[in-house]
Amino acid sequence: MQVEIVLGAWLILGWLRVSAWLSACSLLAVLTSLSLLSVLRGQSDCGCFGSLKVHPGVTAALNLVTLGLLAVFRPKFRWAESRGSLIAVGLLATVAGGLAWTATGPLGDKLLAKIQGRTVALKSSVIDTGEESEGTVKRLAVTVVNTSSRDVRLIGGSVSCSCTTTQNLPATVPADGELTVEIELKFRGTPGQFEHRFEFFTDDKKQPKLSGVIAGRVAATPP
Predict the structure, then answer these.
(1) Residue 66: what pLDDT?
(2) Smallest Cα–Cα separation from 152: which of 209, 197, 85?
(3) What is the DSSP string of 89-130?
(4) For site-directed labelling of 59, which of 88, 149, 169, 170 has its Cα 20 to 30 A away?
(5) Mean pLDDT across the stretch 136-144?
(6) What is the pLDDT of residues 88-135, one digit of tens each?
(7) Phi/psi at 2 (nearest 5 deg)?
(8) Looking at residue 152, what is its pLDDT?
(9) Within 13 A of 116's CA, how many CA atoms are on the CB side?
(10) How far apart are CA 84 and CA 22, in angstroms?
């Protein structure tokens, strides 16, 4: 968000218009790619607006519209005069896109865990189940990542709602590997948004407990 504010101010001020235009196009291209990646992963919230849930398909569409407007209202430039700026911004966009792609993948999760000093962690602490009608049962895959050089044992788990149960525990997360644990969720209750907390207990002294949230929505019953 801070980068977008700086770019917006840069565009308004009109300083080095070609570089500003190219930077804005590059950033929007990267953000659009990440939004489309979230759509392919089945996420229902892009996570861009805090507590306001917006589908990543919506943010991808908005970014594409903005890119179209930038293409229409592009500044006039000549290749010979702006070649350095074009190459520099192109390289920067490529590097930024590669870093963003890596950060949202398994390698990014492992690097973040190591930076934070966590030997074992949830690959994603928020599991978005989407919207289902009451009575629907879903099996959710929760991935636990182990960045240490020894096996870590998942002793058990707990949930904040009786409608949710953990499966195939206890289990072992191999050294420098990962393990998928299933959580069975039954949609029930009044229509609307819900959040249930879950925890896994481990034999790792540095990280004895892993916490996450299951978020979803019970669909309204048709009249």
Answers:
(1) 80
(2) 209
(3) HHHHHHHHHHHHHHHTSHHHHHHHHHHTT-SEEES-SEEEEE
(4) 88
(5) 89
(6) 656 666 666 666 665 555 555 556 566 656 678 887 778 888 888 888
(7) -65, -40
(8) 92
(9) 14
(10) 12
* 133: its two tokens: 């009608």
Q: Is 150 helix (H, G, I), strand (E, B) or coil?
A: coil
Q: Give the separation between CA 165 and CA 198, rounded to whole angstroms.
A: 9
Q: What are the residues whose beta carbons fall under 8 Å from the beta carbon of 44, sequence distance 6 or more?
A: 53, 55, 128, 130, 131
Domains, the chain, ordered by start = 2-104 (no CATH), 112-218 (2.60.40.10)
- Which amino acid is residue 167, in one-letter code? Q
Return the structure tokens found at 28. 């929007």
Token pair for 125: 């602490």
Instruction: Give me the residue label for tokens 């589908």.
Output: 55
CA distance 132 to 220: 9
Q: What are the structure tokens assigned to 71, written together?
A: 């293409």
- Both tokens of 105, joined, read 């993948």
